[in-house]
Amino acid sequence: MEFKFNFELGPAEPPGTGEAERFPTQPERGSEAVKEHGVLWEELEGILEDAVVEEVEVAAAPEPLCLRHLNVWAVERALSLEDRGEAGVSGAIARRSDLVPGVYEGGLKIWQCTFDLIEHLSGVELEGRRVLDLGCGAGLLGIVALRRGAAEVHFQDYNGSVIEGVTLPNVALNDDEEEEEERPAKRRRAQGPEPRPLSRCRFFSGGWSRFGNVHGGSFKYDLVLSSETLYNPDSYGELHDALSSLLSQDGLVYLATKSHYFGVGGGTHLFESFVKQKEVFDIQTVKVIDDGLQRCIVTLSFRKAHCG
User: Fold this and answer.
1) Phi, psi angles (nearest 5°) of residue 127
2) Phi/psi at 210 (nearest 5 deg)?
3) Cis peptide leading into 193, omega within 30 of 0?
4) Confidence (pTM)
5) 78 phi and psi, to 5 degrees?
6) Residue 308 has what pLDDT?
7) Which of 24, 40, 80, 176 sits in a 20 to 30 Å window from 232, CA-based?
8) What angle do CA 172, 228, 79 make, to 5 degrees?
9) Range of the domain at 175
10) What average pLDDT does this structure show over 281-291?
């Protein structure tokens, strides 16, 4: 079963904008094997050579950041004409389907909640942190973390085609000397040259349940960032288990989401009930955006009893 949002060309709207929209069930989402993607420079240069690049200014501290990313529609056209090992992705694009459960999870689009979380992160300390951009798609959340001085950033998306065709190129587009110049001169002298962004990144594709064990418990994240991942209640168990495996004991999860997704009933309140029943995390709504359909940013942290 596939799903089509029927969007016109233009800025992507987040899932669940209209009451008529319906979301498919996502059976066996977490069963997709995990793969790590290396940086293949020749292939990356080929993608960027004729790329249509856009710039977006996002809120950040102490001043806004200008991020570069591939044009969504140009990427879709390119992937629909090429075979990057996931025929289902190019097929979904050809049929203008934004979601095909277990095949393509919508990672080519940039959703509104992503920008909500980017703005909120302007008040969050990212420097020196180990960060995971979960369900990364275009990777803007992780790129902001890199530009803000995160020690290491990992990107995960369900689809390898998204990682190789979108996420990696977007990180490369922001892999320049600006980040070094933006650091205060006093701090640059004290800390020395900052490692370039791509040298601080790892890229993964696959389902959440298997990704939760990708590091074998030897590596934990200080911050996990994710946008538009709560629309389907069927995936809550896999998401919860992955977060509990990947987050450090004093770490924090930031989820940008809608209060309610029409169709399958997912959203902030249903996920909050799910988390409370599990008794592993404390969950808190830290920001509410009343602009059309209500959007929220929630945080998860381990309960003290769990930490002990």
Assistant:
1) -65, 130
2) -80, -30
3) no
4) 0.81
5) -65, -45
6) 54
7) 80
8) 45
9) 36-307
10) 95
